[in-house]
Predict the 3D structure of the following.
Amino acid sequence: MKLHFEKRKSPSGTVQVLVPVVSFLVSLLLTGLMLAAFKVDPVATYLAMYRGAFGSRTGFGYTLVKAIPLMLTGLGVSVAFKLRFWNIGAEGQLVMAGVGATWVAIFWSAWMPQSLLLPAALAMGCVFGALWAGIPAILKVTIKVDETLVTLMLNYVAILFSQFLYYGPWIDPKGQGFPGSAIFPEAAWLPKVFGPASMGIVFALILAVVLWIVMNRTKWGFELKVIGANPASARYQGIAVGRNIILGILLSGALCGLAGACEVTGIGHRLQEGLSLGYGYTAIIVAWMAVLNPLAVIPVAILMAGLLVGGDAVQMRMHLPKAMSLVLQGMILFPMLAGSLFTEYTVRRSHKAHTPATAKEGGA
Amino acid sequence: MDFFTAILTATLRSGTSLVYATVGETYTERSGILNLGLEGMMMMGGTAAFIVAYYTNDLALGLMAAMAVGGLMAAVHAFLTVTMRANQVVSGLALTLFGTGFASFLGKRMGPADGINPYQLAGLSGPRFSPVPIPGLSGIPVLGALFRQDILTYALYLIIPLAWFYLYKTRNGLNLRAVGDDPQTADAMGVKVFSVKYLYTILGGMLVGLGGAHLSLSYTPGWSENITGGRGWIVIALVIFSMWNPSRAIWGALIFGGITALQLSLQAQETPINVPAPFLSMMPYLMTILVLVAITWWEALSKRVGAPASLGKSYMREEK
């Protein structure tokens, strides 16, 4: 007897829900065993994490603060992944957008009507994010340069460029040499809507719905799906593949950019260290766990943000490193990755294995 | 020591961990597996090496622990991406998340309970590899830098040519390249594709672990939070920069290591040239992108150099 793997025509719905849920439980169990091995009470740890992230209005507010950039970059990354464009540059797009928004907020405020300052800063963030994503998109479409590696390299360039600005020409003249730009004028502050969480949460929720409609109910969304599934057949159907990839990636970059713009206008109100906290990398996991469905990105981002805030709580109450949340994130992913086999394939037993025709070793 | 000898000495010291990891990841990628988990694997390698060396006072055991941990984490990656056909990018990122998190966790749990900071690894000093200058040779101007290093760096002078020879001049090396470029054909020719992918992913992981060990046992002896400081990601760039050829790994590492060394020495002294430090640090990444563009172009023209053609793709043996 041997096992056969057959590619499913479309991923199974039940399995798609079952795999993340089971994976989450498995990760709690594995991490719990690990904690117990180090003589740490797993139940108390999990309770502290849960209470820290979701147990109070303040805690949930901070969870939302971290969920906003995860939602927006998660949406951005899922658009790119739909096109099979492995954009792992969300981090760089977020940072460049922070630079763009800062540029408008600080240097345009002298002549721009104050009421337009915030929208202009957010829009400039989207433009910077889109342009930064546009570089690998154009390289990919014109001369087929691998986008995974280019987007990854551009993250470093973006982070270093932002450092150059806030250590150098953009440093706050009144900051006594402390690295960081000047504080934005208040007209460029993104209002808070839920505790410490800014209006970014509203943008993310609206954009998730809009993106779902665009991807599932419009001709363009359909074209993007066809390109992702099979570029050759898309070309045969008369779809402009190259142009659509570039447009899709510009959209992806703009969404990641909005995340960066919301971070600088909503939290620090200046360009400084701590804009790049790795949201762009977690976004890949968010998008992937949400099976690239924009509506699912929202709850997954809240869960991942909850893990991050829970990690802080564990550090304060249990004196465990907050990196615990990274261990948990990793631990969720391992069973999920293993489970992805079952969402994309059906497994069949075959009893023909002893006939000479199929006598060679099973492939999986 | 004159300025250039000092810079080259520091460059080699700083580049050693990069070269180990670059040779390792080159072998992994040659089998068609992209492993983005290097940052987490190096961090775990360095942490394991320090813990074992600290408690046993045996550097060799520390190195073995680093190799075991690196190999084990790579085996998880191989299982997920080869057997379970999972997405290589996500699996690698999961390893990095887990590795950085777990290394930090160990750093706060594995220290001695009776120390000044109970259970903390940070601040402890354990055994370390020291530079062993070779009499005579180490006195040569500039090139003497090659001969005032520690044993792990000297070992590279053997490992690099061996890694090159194995990849290009042996039957096994040919099979490995065949698996990375065209797994279907390699399979048809009787190469055990899955075993090859497992073997070189794990071997690569062991070398990556050693790279981490060089950090905690020699370059910056001791354990600290974020001991790798992004080196795992730099290695991904170095592999491309060296066009998947182990003999070129040294050049990329020299450039990256040199930039680090140069920055440190520029900070230490007043210099007439004033290049903002971030731009200096940016150069390697920009150069990697340029190299990538150039080889893609060149490949389109001549098909002579470059990336394993199946890099990042799952291999499915029986499609019905």
Observations:
- The CA atoms of residues 35 and 351 of chain A lie 43 Å apart.
- Residues 68-294 of chain A form one domain.
- Confidence is low (pLDDT under 50) at residues 352-364 of chain A.
- Chain A is about 70% helix and 5% strand.
